[in-house]
Amino acid sequence: MIGAPGNPTTSDPTQIDGTAVLYLRDDSGSWYESVATRSSSIVDGQTGLSVALQPELFVVGSPYADDVGTAEGAILVHRRATFYRGRATVTPLHDEQPLLLRAGREFAGAPYLVLGSVTGTAPATPLGGVVEVPLVFDAYTQLTLMHLAPVDDAFDVLKSRGERNASFVLPPGLPAAFDGLEVHHAFVAVHPETFEVITSDPVTVRIEL
After folding, report:
1. Is 140 helix (H, G, I), strand (E, B) or coil?
2. pLDDT one-digit tens code per residue, 94-123
3. What is the per-residue pLDDT across 76-96, written as a single tens digit (0 to 9) for each?
4. Residue 91 region, left (φ>0) first, then alpha (ψ -120 to 50), else beta?
5. In 3-state terms, what secondary structure has residue 184?
6. What pLDDT is stored for residue 99 in this prediction?
7. Residue 88: predicted pLDDT
8. Neighbours of 133 (CB within 10 A)
9. Fewest 10 Å CB contacts: which of 43, 86, 97, 147?
10. Distance of alpha carbon 83 from its chain centroid, rounded?
């Protein structure tokens, strides 16, 4: 885990918000970038000034995060090898939230499905046995099951490192009633040989019109 607190993450070189990058080893022993994480709203950068790594978690310090207009800072906590978001909010100007699926190399070639909910993440929806999807089943979940939700690459197979990128795209022309709505997504993957089913953590995006 490498912190890069002075790294510009947009095309605007004056916006030095910083980032932190998680690297993993592939089967040949070579390192590769698995995911980069950053705070969603920055006043003066420094995301990645401090990082901590454990087997199941990584933590990134973002001392100038400003999600509520006070620049009080934030600690970003992520589970490793699950699900990451590239943006916490979507707007008509920035209308896409990247979704990074990271199931681990043992799930290479596994089929996956991204599901969603606008109701919340608890209580979870059981899939049978002890497997649960951390989403409340609602009409939006039904749309994701029918592949009618605004999620690109919502259903496919994971690549050679058990990874895949998808995205939630803000539909154009949404009425003002959708302003402030939070949309939650999680993915389900099935091991291609053992048929083990795994579910990710949920990620949330807020619509701001």
Report:
1. helix
2. 899 989 898 888 899 999 999 999 999 999
3. 777 665 787 777 889 998 899
4. beta
5. strand
6. 92
7. 80
8. 22
9. 147
10. 5
CA count, 13 A, side-chain hemisphere, 48 = 21
Farthest-apart Cα atoms in the chain, separation: 51
Q: Report which of 9, 197, 206 is spatially closest to residue 112, judged by C-alpha positions.
A: 197
User: For residue 10, what pLDDT is reported?
Assistant: 60
Q: For residues 176 and 174, what is the distance between their CA atoms, to the nearest angstrom?
A: 7
CA-CA distances (angstroms) from residue 207 to 12, 88, 92, 186, 193? 23, 9, 9, 17, 39
Nearest Cα to Cα of residue 200 among 135, 128, 110: 135
For the chain, residues with pLDDT lower than 50 are 41-42
For residue 12, the model assigns a pLDDT of 61
Residue 136: the pLDDT is 97
State the DSSP code for 11.
S
CA 204 to chain centre: 8
Tokens 């190399």 identify what position? Answer: 105
Which of 140, 141, 209, 138 has the alpha carbon at shortest distance from 177?
Answer: 209
> Is 195:180 a contact under the CB 8 Å cutoff?
no
> For residue 14, what are its two tokens?
């004056």
Query: In a 3-state reduction of DSSP, which class is residue 201?
Result: coil
Sole residue written with tokens 């209580």: 123
Cα(209)–Cα(207) distance, rounded to whole angstroms?
6
